[in-house]
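Annotated sample (chain length 352).
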Amino acid sequence: MTRTFVIDATVSKPPYSGVQLAAMQEAKAVSALAPGSLVFGTAEGFTPQPAWARNTLGRILWQQTVLPRITRQLDATALLSLAYTCPLRCKCPVILHVHDIIALDYPELCSNLNILHMRMLLPSSIHRADIIVVSTQYVAERLTTRFPEVTAKTHVVNLGVDYDFFAAPAPRLTTLPDAPYFFFVGNLEPKKGLPTLLDAFGLIADKCNANLVLAGRVAWKSATITRQIADLKSRFPERIHVLGRVPAEQLPALHQHATAFVFPSIVEGFGLPVLEAMAAGVPVIHSSHPAIMEATGGNGLSFDKGNAATLADIMFHLLEKPEAAKQLVLQGKRHAQAHLWSHWAEKVMDLL
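Output written by the structure step:
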């Protein structure tokens, strides 16, 4: 029997980050196991949607009107929708990946367009879906607490990592000074907890020679964060490096040569950068948010979210005693190797 899977990865477009990156990797991994799958998106090898459907509003309209017609024409076995929403009038079975419900739980941390999109389509999409995939038990609990009627069809499948890409040795970037540094990557936005990291670095900067390296675009509701970065940079002008969005090819090097990767998020659905850091062989320091605790599997150093003093103590300890991180690095690499994108795809294919 011929099976035809349609995969909606249209949320993913370059430069990839966060959910966009996850959707791209998920689509590639599933299509590798199911040759002949029709994957919509802008990554190499995918089928691009029309030009008018490549902004957010156009993509939503395309998903709700054109995609159902495509699945009917192909007599699709199933549709795999990889980012929060799915066509409400699709006749074939639908598997929906809900990465988080932060826009519903914490709208103050999200962009206005994201809030509107999720309020309009997320509840209807989860009710339409035949199977819901979430990345952590934390998201499963948040989703089923708010929508208990979808409990039976909700399944936890942890995200994966491109281990070989992050583990391959990469030379240190010559654009950074030859000094120890702490590294963060992610959007500069409220949920990432950057004020805690900035405060923590301010507490240790006078007694060490380490730098702070921040990579990621300035995103929504970021005025307070950018002011705090500017204030810290005025105190330590040669020690704070704000790189903006960096090419993916630079991430392994930025991770591998850091003293530690710091992920101080207030809330996450998973926290993919912690797996990437572990694959790169760098110690991970992270907030105690439940989703991130699941993502690290106990292989990082955690602090109570928002507690800058504790974070500062951990950062300073790793500077003073780098040998303390060796076992942590080994555990982290083993943990990352057990969470490949191919493993994610195999579990989702079982559901398909």
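Annotation: The mean pLDDT is 95.
Annotation: The first helix runs from residue 18 to 33.
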